[in-house]
Amino acid sequence: MNRIALVILKNIFRFPGAYYKLCHYAKHTDDYSFEEKYDHIQYMFEKVISSGNVDLQVYGKENIPQEDGFILYGNHQGLFDVIAVVASCDKPLAAVLKKELCKIPLLKQVIQCTKSQPMDREDIKQSMQVIINVTKEVKEGRNYLIFPEGTRSKNGNNLLEFHSGSFKCATKSKCTIVPVAFVDSYKVLDEKGSKKLSVQIHYLEPIKYDEYKDMNTVDLSVMVHDRIQEVVNKNCVTIQT
Questions:
Q1: What letter would DSSP give residue 198?
Q2: In the list 44, 102, 165, 209, which could disulfide-bond 174, CB 3.0-4.6 Å?
Q3: Maximum Cα–Cα distance for the chain, whole Å?
Q4: Does some domain include residue 240?
């Protein structure tokens, strides 16, 4: 059975009410606290994971800052990455995502509830405005998830080059960076069937501003990229070529 079909079947009596509540939050997003909305999204994503026959193995949760105003930078293997982060990170956060996701039911409402930042990768002016917005919000104490590859890697556990521009949000806000390594996340939606599989998410040691303040964004992007790739290499069974 297809994994998505399995999730729907197992939650056929649970999700309609949960989705209705999510839509209500999205329509009246300013009437509810970020924490309340995030808790509901986290609940839904946890059910997706458990009913989808996915064993999410989380490492390094102690590396998630307790003080708000940080950015998670992770490799990107697919839509499941966002689900894994929200399900495992108890600190409410928003994300920078490609604008096309705003058209997908459920994700559309999640984006509205978290006031995440859709980015048009073909519009340089709009992309720069997103960087400005995120920088401002991080300074004000919001937490963000950013995928600096710009798009999902289609080579499994091999990372694409990181776009250095995505690190301007960190350098300008002087925030703490937490590298996040996803291992085998692509298998959830890319592999046929619904057999049980394991996905790892590793929250790496935080990088304080003092550690990178003298680096340019290119060198910073390479450093974060290499730290993530090293963890992926150590924990995956095979690297695709």
A1: E
A2: 209
A3: 54
A4: no
Count of structural domains, the chain: 1
Rounded distance between C-alpha atoms, residue 128 and residue 169, angstroms: 10
Range of the domain at 72: 3-235
SS3 163: coil
On whether residue 152 sits in a domain, the answer given is: yes
Distances (CA, A) of 126 to 18, 103, 136, 137: 33, 18, 15, 16
Q: Give the CATH number for residue 141.
A: 3.40.1130.10
pTM to 2 decimal places:
0.94
The per-residue pLDDT of the chain, averaged, comes to 94
Cβ(36)–Cβ(74) below 8 Å: no
The whole-angstrom separation of Cα 49 and Cα 87 is 8
Give residue-wise pLDDT tens across range 193-229: 889 999 999 999 999 999 999 999 999 999 999 999 9
Instruction: Give, for 17, the enclosing helix (H) or strand (E).
Output: helix 15-27
Question: In sequence order, what are the residues at sequence separation of 6 or more whose Cβ sits closer than 8 angstroms to the Cβ of residue 51?
Answer: 6, 7, 10, 11
Measure the CA–CA gap between 79 and 76, rounded to whole angstroms.
Answer: 8
Task: Please measure the distance between the N-terminal and C-terminal CA atoms of the chain and give it in whole angstroms.
Answer: 28
Q: Residue 81 falls within a domain, yes or no?
A: yes
* Distance from C-alpha of 170 to C-alpha of 163, rounded to nearest angstrom: 13
- The larger pLDDT score, comparing residue 238 to residue 37, is at 37
Report residue 178 as tokens: 């937490």
